[in-house]
Amino acid sequence: MSSQTPASPDQTPARPLVRFSKVTKRYGEHTVLDDLDLDVAAGEKVTIIGPSGSGKSTVLRILMTLETLTDGLIEIDGEPLWHERRGDQLKPASEAHLRKMRGQLGMVFQQFNLFPHMSVQRNLTEAPRQVLGLSRKEAQSRATELLERVGLADHANKYPGQLSGGQQQRVGIARALMMRPRVMLFDEPTSALDPELVGEVLHVIRTLADEHDLTVLMVTHEMSFARRFSDRVCFFDKGRIHEQGTPEQIFTDPREARTREFLRAVLEPDV
Amino acid sequence: MEWISYLGPLWQGAWVTIQLTLYSTVLGALLSFAAGIGKRSSIWPLRILSAVYVEVFRGTSLLVQLFWLYFALPLAGNAIGIDLRLDPVVAGVLALGLNIGAYGAEVVRGGLKSVSQQQLEAAQALNFTPRQTLWRISLPQAIPEMLPAFGNLAVQNLKDTALVSLISLGDLAFRAEQVRNFTQDSATVYTLVLLMYFGMALVLAGMIKLLEMSVGRWRTVSR
Amino acid sequence: MLFAIAWDASSSWSLAVSILPILLKGLWVTLQATVVGFLLAMAFGLVLAGLKSVPLKIVRWPAKLVSEFLRDTPLLVQLFFLYYVLPDYGLLLPAFMTGALALGLQYSAYMSEVYRGGLEAVGSGQREAARALNLTPVRTFTHIVLPQAVPRIIPASGNYLVSIMKDVPVLSVVTVLELFGVARIIGDRTFNYLVPLSMVGALYLILTILAAWAVRTLDQRLPKHGIALR
To answer: Where's it found, cell-wise (chain B) (predicted)?
Structure first.
């Protein structure tokens, strides 16, 4: 990979890697995303924070094509995700198009979602072999390397059920990285973990994101991690980005009353 | 010790029963998966076909199905000029397999439904095709769930084979009737035959138990 | 009754129309056998379930064995056993009653499991709460456990009622003239099995679809939290 420096949020790049333009998502009467605009530059690490039910996870799920959008446009590297260009018109995407676009994305789930019937090794190699057509040898050497990076080289032949939550999530991260995605999506990766296991997972995310110069979009409740890790923090409320800026700015000098309120509630809970 | 002399012909019949059970259970299993997966297909004619098959064969009586295939189907064939006369063995295996397959289809459908949405999302995020997801993620997780119900259906099927004696197939129930006719020793003959069916059912159930233990190993491991 | 009725076999349609009345008479016998068999299964099943839950091993184990045996052996052979062996011991039952008895025995094993499942689904927390409130065991059973178990027992029993109905054709082998037996005789006489057997299939389909709908409706109507006794 090239050694470009991550773009800082105030110098907007010519073409963002991910762009949401006026994206709306409704379930019946309920509006989850409301005219959302969001750009993520290549190599940028963006964290989404906000109260539950604010639509944070929906952003990731729509991007991963797990849920459809109601209105608006999402582009990855200039190419529409949910649409295809036919002439100068935009048509709903075919399954083939969605598959092509999905290949650029990787996702880490809150509940890990490892395949319980496969060994750790198989969890990592199955998709590269079946979907990317890698040879067994290629897939295994890639898996060995990644398992070493996440500190689980000794656990390759265990089943997910034999691992701790923190270990499972590290496998989840390695599994997503096996596909060499351009953008990594983390959907509350530590919310399901016991408190003492959170650190090991965040450490792995941080190391790998730096090493692989990943573009990251993460939803999290770990405020101190968001502050140290992100290039930009977006505060979500009621399906919109209520406020965004550098971690310094958001955490020390939030402009909006709603942001201040949320951060106070999270950082200094009234006991 | 009169009863020992009954064992020869009864054993002959039991062997036919075992074969019938084996063939029709295999056929039924194939049909179960075909129709159970078909019911969840994205192609609507497949969905309709699977649903109709399941409804018709679950909704009518096995004995009616057996007689329809053996006695009525040739007449239907006659009407359109095709020879659809079936050998009793073929009619028996077909009726048993079609019948048990319709019940099995519901088991397969239920098993596939039990695979969590999260697993399917993980598969989609890794860009598996729907077919790969079915074969590599859903079915391997669903089959251990299905096995106990399949075991019950296999025993049900073994019991149902007795009905083929009514189209004069020489299975255990048929031989029993022959021996009884010949000896008039009803109590002994039928006690023996019931015990033989019971023994076969226990062996069959035991085999399914062994299968259950071998396919779901990942479910029993823990830290 | 069959000998008295003439049918018109000049075409499939006229045959179908002319045999419908006798088929419906057969259907009536099928329904009767279903209901009697089901009532017997409910009664025998209750006895089996009771014996299977007796604390004494010497009672419990034989009950379990009998239950397994009844469930794992073919209805047809059980029926022949009753039909040929009972008279040897001086018990002469009409064919219809022998058939209903066979259905009742075979399905008693299934019904005993239905009762057990329904009672076990009422959590031990309920029994503990009743004990904490100092209710008598009898009152606990009649007012706490049973009302919560019944909504689970009814739909499962309904499914077995339908299964019994589909097994009634087996009774034709001991000369019970239920729906299928009637159709078979018509087939033997007219050499046209296609029309009567297809009609039997269609009638069964209608009945099972109606029954499935009834079980579903009943299941939805039953209060999930239980039926309160006065």
So the answer is: Cell inner membrane; Cell membrane
